[in-house]
Amino acid sequence: MLSISCFKQWWLWSILLLLGACQWFELKDRQLLVNTSTVAQLSFEFSVATGTLVDNPMTKGIASYGHCWDTLPNPNVRDNNAQISVTDSLDPFVTLIGPLDPATQYYVRAFVRLTDGTISYGEDLVLQTLTTEEYINALIRMESTSNVTATTVDATGTLGIIVSRVLSNITEHGFCWSTTNPNPTLADDSKNLGAPSSAGRFTTTIDGLTPNTPYFIRAYVKNNRGDIGYSLSVLNFTTSP
Length: 241
Prior knowledge:
Elements (H helix, E strand, L loop, with lengths): L3 H5 L25 E8 L5 E7 L8 E9 L11 E3 L8 E5 L7 E10 L4 E3 L3 E4 L3 H8 E7 L6 E7 L1 H5 L4 E9 L10 E4 L7 E7 L7 E10 L4 E3 L4 E4 L3
Antiparallel strand pairs: 1-2, 2-5, 3-4, 3-6, 6-7, 6-8, 9-10, 10-13, 11-12, 11-14, 14-15, 14-16
């Protein structure tokens, strides 16, 4: 299974271009110019947030825009957690936020800073980050085995919501199994089903098994950086005589 440090890096490289520099500004009262649209967890430590302009202040001069976050309501850019968006379009704009702690509730809101120094904030959205176990289950799950014969078994797994957000980066998914290793890996026997076309359930028939033999099996997923995620659940089955 991947170490926690490896999970922290999962797919992060593919979105680093969204990063900008952290900024701190003076807060001044201002009418609402921006909405906080969405926020969703993208990797073990990072989430992605979007925002949209309500009153386009282009003629007033935009100095910066992005999202800020904190464990307390109404985060602002004077906190350490303020990230500038560097997407080309202001409507909507996208910001990568983090690093975040697991199993923690955050408040996230968009901001726009004008060249005169005034800042407008959007509304708070609540983000509850996943626990380590929840994150792995949102990545890959081993669901079931069925139709066991002397030499074959049908295996079913699920690619979770985290995979759906970075589907283009997935190069492999499938199953690995062993007669001796209770936590099988790709160093054991495996079947690669290639790059998935979508997240969700997948099933395949594994053949070439030895009759009357107990096996351990679990699902896996791999990205184009070479990172591998294994399902927490390992199932057992025994082939027929």
